[in-house]
Write a sequence for this structure.
């Protein structure tokens, strides 16, 4: 029963994240590339391997969960692993095609909901981004500061040591 309740939200979260990544990669292609197929091709060249690697690792992790002796966990892992694989296939086929169709709609100055029927007379230009430039100018320099790097590595080492020391206190089995 838990598979039917949890897995759809898991797959939805993974799928929406990947769709945002694909759309973002397409938006970052320079305006000099005007052909829609080329833009999407460059975007998929940029972000596709990352999405493929993430989907592969997620599905392998779920399929490894099939090796447990708990039937409910085996069922969950099977459904989640297959869901991740199918989600990846749908993103690479249907979503990329829908993105290309939407870009053609934008290029032809068509409206959103009634795209095939209504042509926009004065299309509004693409709005400027707000968060990304501020993030780049304020947060990134702090993140790449030498002290921040040392602090992150130190905290990570402390957490790994703490986790290793805590392994002796773990009780095996399900309560």
């Amino acid at each position: 029963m838990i598979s039917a309740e949890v897995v759809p939200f898991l797959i939805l979260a993974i799928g929406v994240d990947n769709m945002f990544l694909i759309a973002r990669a397409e938006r970052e292609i320079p305006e000099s590339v005007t052909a829609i197929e080329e833009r999407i091709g460059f975007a998929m060249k940029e972000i596709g391997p990352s999405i493929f690697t993430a989907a592969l690792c997620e599905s392998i992790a779920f399929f490894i969960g099939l090796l447990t002796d708990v039937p409910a966990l085996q069922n969950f892992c099977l459904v989640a692993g297959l869901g991740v694989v199918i989600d990846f296939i749908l993103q690479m086929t249907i979503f990329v095609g829908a993105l290309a169709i939407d870009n053609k709609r934008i290029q032809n100055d068509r409206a959103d909901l009634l795209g095939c029927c209504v042509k926009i007379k004065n299309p509004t230009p693409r709005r400027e981004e707000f968060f990304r430039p501020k993030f780049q100018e304020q947060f990134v320099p702090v993140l790449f500061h030498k002290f921040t790097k040392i602090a992150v590595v130190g905290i990570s080492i402390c957490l790994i040591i703490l986790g290793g020391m805590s392994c002796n206190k773990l009780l095996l089995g399900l309560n």
Observations:
- The chain has a mean pLDDT of 86.
- The helical segments are 2-27, 36-64, 71-107, 131-143, 146-166.
